[in-house]
Hints:
There is one protein chain. With 203 residues, this protein is α+β, with helices and mostly antiparallel strands. It contains 7 helices and 4 strands. The protein has helices at residues 10-22, 41-44, 66-76, 87-115, 128-148, 162-177, 186-196; strands spanning 2-5, 27-30, 54-56, 62-64. Helix 1 (10-22) packs antiparallel against helix 6 (162-177). The longest helix has 29 residues, at 87-115.
Amino acid sequence: MKIIEDGRAPNPRRVRIFLAEKGIQMEYEQVDITEFDHKKPEFTSLNPLQRVPVLMLDDGTAISESMAICRYFEELQPEPALLGKDALGKAKVEMWQRRMELSLMQPVAQTFRHLHPAMAEMEKPQVAAWGEVNRPRALSMLKLLDQELANRPFIAGDEFTAADITGLVAVDFMKPARIDRPENSPNLDRWHAEVSSRPSAKA
Length: 203
């Protein structure tokens, strides 16, 4: 079993943090998306959407999409539970994980892909106006998150979950996307400092 990834990309980092929290060791094979390795036939045969990461099982099964990979390992090793413990907990984690993914990470990624000069060859066409549209969307979600975090230590409740992993990776991805964290966000700042200090954040 191994994971094929580009270790610099945000989605593979989500999986690495998830596995580090569970103490799962994994073999990694690197591809270079700046050299378009992910668009070559051998990789495309594993994931026709040409995105990293991909989990390769020993029987040749390829699983892509970061949260699908995380779900696979959650089922194999339920503890510590990172996708919720009971019906309500699982629903809350899913709700906030989706919010982090769709309302924070995606706008940050679109800002990066459509405004950063380094992405000019990978994102064709780059639409600067679309990048600018997404910047305030990310900031709006962070404002909401700061309000929510006034009431609990972590995004989905009292325990660290996959929602925090996606949130952490998205906030850190704001730096290369050239989006400044909002000022006067004490709850967001407290949360980010805490989750960044976890050993898994360095995975």
